[in-house]
Design a protein that fits this description.
Blueprint lengths: L2 E6 L5 H9 L3 E6 L16 H8 L4 E2 L8 H7 L3 E5 L7 H4 L4 E6 L11 H7 L4 E8 L9 E8 L6 H24 L32 H10 L6 E5 L2 E10 L18 E4 L4 E4 L4 E8 L5 E3 L19
Parallel strand pairs: 1-2, 1-4, 2-3, 4-5
Antiparallel strand pairs: 5-6, 6-7, 8-9, 9-12, 10-11, 11-12, 12-13
Amino acid sequence: MQKIIYCGTPSISLKPLKALEDMGFKICAIITQPDNNFGRQKNSNISPIKQYAIENGYSYYQPNKIIDIKNELESIEADYLITCAYGQFIPDSVLNLFKNCINVHASLLPKYRGGSPVQFALMNGDKETGISLMQMVKKMDAGDVYVQKSIPIDINDDNGSLFDKLGNLAYEIVKENIIEIFNNNIEPVKQDENHVTFALNLKNDEEKINWDQEDEKIHNFVRALSPNPIAFTYLDNERIKIKKTSLMDENDFVIIPLKMFFPGEIAVIDKKGIVVATKTKFIRILEIQRQGKKMLPASTYYNQKNGFIKPGMIFK
C-alpha cells in the first residue's frame, strides 16, 4: 500500500484528502498551519484539516516551517507528499524525501500562481476556473502540470460558493488521476512562462472598495471577499463591511440620472437594499455591517427616519 503524507489547511483541502482515503491509500501523517497562523484574526483558530485529523485519529504536525520536522518526515518513509492550499513553501530538502510531490492547485495554471487564486478569478470577472494537479518544485506553483479540469463561474458565485465547487472538483480530479500519476502513465507538461499571472494574498488595506470604477468591478470585488474577510468602505468615518451586492438590471431602473451623483453616493434606499452610484452605473448593496454590529440585510435601512445610513451620504 502506498504511504502518503498530506499537507493542507482550509476547507478545500479536505476534499483531496477524502479522495485519497476513499481510494484506500494509507495517510501516515497530516501537516497543517499552526493555529495562530490560520485565519485573518490570528486568534488561535484551528484549521479544518487539523479538526479533521483530530476527529479521525491521524497524527498531525503544525510546524512554523516544514523544514523543522524534516527528520520526523524522513522517519515515516512515506512514498508521496500531496498538498492542497497548505500555505507554506516546501524546500527541496523536504521534497527530495519522496518519490513524487503533487500539489492540488485551485486555478488553471499558469494563471494565478499563489495563495489567492479563487479571489483573483472572481475579482477579474473570469468566466471559468479549475483545478490543476502539478509536480511540486521549490518555486511557487511553477511545476509541470499533469492534468487540469475546469468549471464555469456563475455571476452570483462568491468566494465561499466557488471554494465549495472547486473542492468537489478537486475530489474528482484526484480520484480520477492520482493512480495514473503514481504509475507514471501521465506525462506532465511544462507551464508556459509567457502566460504566468500571480494571485498573492491581499493585505488589509487592499480589501477597501474603490467606488470610482465600473459597477461590475465593484460587484466582483465584493463577491471575491465574501464570506471572508469581507470588503469594506467608510461612511461618516465609520468602517462598514459590504458582504453582498447585485448588479442593477432593467427592472431596477433608477429614474435619477447617474451624473447627479458622486461615485459612492447613496441614491436610494428601497425594499431591496441600498442603491449606490459608481463610475458607470448604479449598484445595489444587499448585505451590510456597521462597525461592532451584526451583518444585516441592507433593506433594514429602508424607511428608517433616524437611521444612520441615508440617501445623499457617500461611501469613501
